[in-house]
Amino acid sequence: MSAHLPEVYTDFRERFPEVMRHQDALAASIDDAGPLDERTTRLVKLGIALGAQADGAVRSNVRKALAAGASPAEVEQVVLLGLTTRGFPATIAAWQWTNEVLHGNG
């Protein structure tokens, strides 16, 4: 498992391996269900995570978007787009989480 994964998540995976196997299969099936490529999918999921104010999901999707070929500028634009939809406080929080990942602190 990645060093970025929270202990509560890894503990849950270890306690319920069969449930997580199904969750992983569902997630892969959903990712493959449409025409979006992985880069675009990760950027969309980043926007959803920002809207949900999900710190871990924002960080995870920043890392996954970069790994899928998104540029730091594209990731930053996704966060900036949250300003007029989700609001200033939510966007600033996501901006912090994003920058911590981009600059190696998260």
Structure commentary:
The protein is mainly α and 106 residues long. It is 73% helix and 0% strand. It folds into two domains: 1-34, no CATH class; 37-106, AhpD-like (Up-down Bundle). The chain has helices at 7-15, 17-31, 38-52, 55-67, 72-81, 88-102. Helix 3 runs antiparallel to helix 4 (55-67) and helix 5 runs antiparallel to helix 6. The longest helix has 15 residues, at 17-31. InterPro entries: AhpD-like, CMD-like. Keywords: Oxidoreductase, Peroxidase. Residues 17-100 form the Carboxymuconolactone decarboxylase-like domain.
Q: What is the count of helical runs?
A: 6
Distance between the termini: 16 Å
Quote the average pLDDT: 94
Multimeric status of the protein: single chain
The percentage of residues in β strands lies in under 5%
Supply the number of structural domains.
2
**Which CATH class of the largest domain?**
Mainly Alpha
Superfamily at the CATH H level of the largest domain?
AhpD-like
Decide which structural class fits the backbone.
mainly alpha
Outline the biggest β-sheet.
none
Produce the secondary structure layout.
Layout: H1 7-15, H2 17-31, H3 38-52, H4 55-67, H5 72-81, H6 88-102
Helix pairs in contact: 3-4, 3-5, 4-6, 5-6
